[in-house]
Design a protein that fits this description.
Low-confidence stretches: none
Distance between the termini: 83 Å
Shape: rod-shaped
Number of helices: 5
Number of strands: 0
Largest sheet: none
Number of domains: 1
Mean pLDDT: 74
Order of helices and strands: HHHHH
Radius of gyration: 34 Å
Structural class: mainly alpha
Helix content: over 70%
Length: about 190
């Protein structure tokens, strides 16, 4: 009877000492670390592209608005008095200035429904917040997985299998290395 129960007893003892749970916990922690790296990579890839998009849209809109302001200034600088109405050159100069203003306004009128810098800034802020939330969640999940793994390899009965069978060592939780690293990156449009 002892011979029949010996394999069953050995299986129960081995199952209770971390034979499967230690590597499972370790792989979970490694997977959570990959999530941290993916979140940071997403941030590194996304933010410069969003900033460039917002900057480009704002620049195009700024140029359009600058053209209108400049054309308006030129148009208002040409003044006609009642005596000038008989001078064809002054009338032509006035008409040219007003025509230039009309040409400058046309792209603004055509683009008005498409002006996006304000929406792009909103999108940028939303994406920055979302990205930082993803980073925070990924770091939190990794640290939780590390805590679970480290607890498992230090507590009985898994500690037996962790040391004897796997040679497990504690994993290091993520901590910001430089002061202020936990803060979101600065966005500069200058």
């Amino acid at each position: 009877m002892f011979r029949a129960l010996a394999p069953l007893s050995a299986a129960i003892v081995l199952a209770g000492c971390g034979l499967n749970s230690v590597p499972t916990s370790e792989e979970n922690a490694k997977a959570r670390w990959a999530d941290v790296q993916a979140a940071y990579q997403r941030r590194a890839d996304l933010i410069p592209n969003l900033v460039a998009t917002v900057r480009g849209a704002a620049k195009a809109e700024n140029e359009t608005l600058s053209n209108v302001v400049n054309a308006r200034a030129r148009a208002t600088s040409v003044q006609l008095s009642g005596d000038d109405l008989t001078d064809p050159a002054k009338m032509q100069q006035f008409a040219a200035a007003q025509g230039a203003l009309s040409l400058a306004i046309r792209p603004l009128q055509e683009a008005y429904p498409e002006l996006r810098s304000q929406a792009n800034f909103s999108t940028l802020m939303s994406q920055l917040e979302s990205t930082e939330n993803r980073v925070t969640i990924a770091v939190r999940d990794y640290n939780s997985a590390v805590q679970e793994y480290n607890t498992r390899i230090r507590t009985f009965p898994d500690a037996i299998g962790a040391r004897v069978i796997h040679g497990a060592k504690p994993l290091t939780p993520f901590q910001a290395v430089t002061p202020g690293a936990e803060r979101a990156p600065q966005v500069n449009f200058g």
